[in-house]
Amino acid sequence: MALAIAHSRGLDGLNAPPVTVEVHLASGLPSFTLVGLPDTEVKEARDRVRAAIVNSGFEFPSKRITVNLAPADLPKESGRFDLPIAIGILAASNQTSGKALADYEFAGELSLSGELRPIRGALAMALQTAGNGKAFILPEASAREAALTGAGEILSATSLLAVCAHLSGQALLPTAVAEAGENLPVFPDLTEVRGQAQAKRALEIAAAGNHSLLMVGPPGSGKSMLAARLPGLMPALHPAAAKESAAVLSLVGQFQPAAFGVRPYRQPHHTASAVALVGGGNPPRPGEISLAHQGVLFLDELTEFDRKVLETLREPLETGRIHIARAARQAEFPAEFQLVAAMNPCPCGFLSHGNGKCRCTPDQIARYRGKLSGPFLDRIDLLLEVPALPAEALTGKADGENSATVRVRVETALARQMARQNKVNARLNASEVDIHCEPDEAGSKLLKQATTQLDLSARAWHRILKVARTIADLAGSDAIRAAHVGEAIQYRRFARG
Questions:
Q1: How, if at all, do strands 330-334 and 321-325 pair?
Q2: What is the helix (H) or strand (E) element at residue 408, kind and residue range?
Q3: pLDDT of residue 259
Q4: Which residues contact 261 (CB under 8 A, 6 or more apart)?
Q5: For residue 41, how many C-alpha atoms fall within 13 Å in the half-sphere facing its CB?
Q6: Contact by Cβ (8 Å): 333, 322
Q7: Cβ atoms of residues 315 and 278 within 8 Å
Q8: How far is CA 212 from the centre of its chain?
Q9: How confident is the model at residue 492 (pLDDT cuts 50, 70, 90)?
Q10: pTM to 2 decimals?
Q11: What is the DSSP letter of 475?
């Protein structure tokens, strides 16, 4: 046949729209033309495909070859189209069977020797092949990743020659087997943090309700240690959330099948740009907030981040999604991350020591804290002071509960939330807060007094109620009492500073 049609997938954000690879061989001077809005990586497929076909023992046709990647208005990027282009050329030149091409989708980058290399986004593509009745042929490493979705038939191939043998019925490709749960990361334990009982309590509340947390304290008080232990207090992801988180990581090639179901923990440096944090580029790629989807985003030295960078977090903190718009492309990524941040109380860091070590002036302290805008602080649920540890706390034995004990309480509280409202407390909207977070009479009176004294906004009011609801869930109480509201109010006091 002079025309062959193979099927593949593109990537547009988390979507993987179908791409039809049409290959036509015509008489005339030998040439190889790629059309269909290919970028540089795809255009370079001409040389990779030519070498891979020859080195796999086939003959590269001395024809006028035209490859069309449809639809024409969808930009095509990366080397994932190498395999379907090569299969199309071989089928069009009758060197391999083209009868079964309609039953498969192909994606894979070819080496010059014809071996298949892994590609980005395999898991995201596999999620959208479910139910289309086609088997998906992928490079071996990518196939193991895609098999975690449990979607459709995923076949694992090591080379172009193996794919051709499968299509000809000579040697069938094996079905990919998911390899998840091996060598799971072990998070550090809460007992390793000396003292800081109040901070540990705030960490438990944050884990139980998925609340954002800002810790303020001098250097060495344990802020980073506490943040690193938060994922260990949280339950494993349920399958749907695990697939969504893995799909985002797969887009940038950072997903590890052995860590499937484990909440991501991201810690970008304070020099990170807005694009690195929220995503961007052309084509748009997810940033750190999306890579932390369903996990923890830890921003250490918060005031050292550029203020404009921090302001970009305001929308995703509210909505759980980020929309990236560029002149030619738009993309939307999930960003339901749990923000944990740490900062010093003043430029030198020793304001709260109380021993005269701090030499910062009030103006310097005001400018330092002024790097965080009021609207940004308003969107953080828990604001906590982490004091310096006394000498006796450092020399004594480890105290407090371990992470496993706290995690049991957190899982119980989360189960109450799922049964009551089918979402975590931090994600309740205004109308749901009115329904599920109404305090008793004493609690309501206390909250009104605090609102007047602390000059709280309506958003802060709602966040206090959400935190109080989580505290009540941890206590196993259906009612939100004054004690729960009072504890929640304690975590807003820094907002006045």
A1: antiparallel
A2: helix 403-421
A3: 84
A4: 180, 181, 236, 237, 239, 242
A5: 13
A6: yes
A7: no
A8: 16
A9: confident
A10: 0.90
A11: T
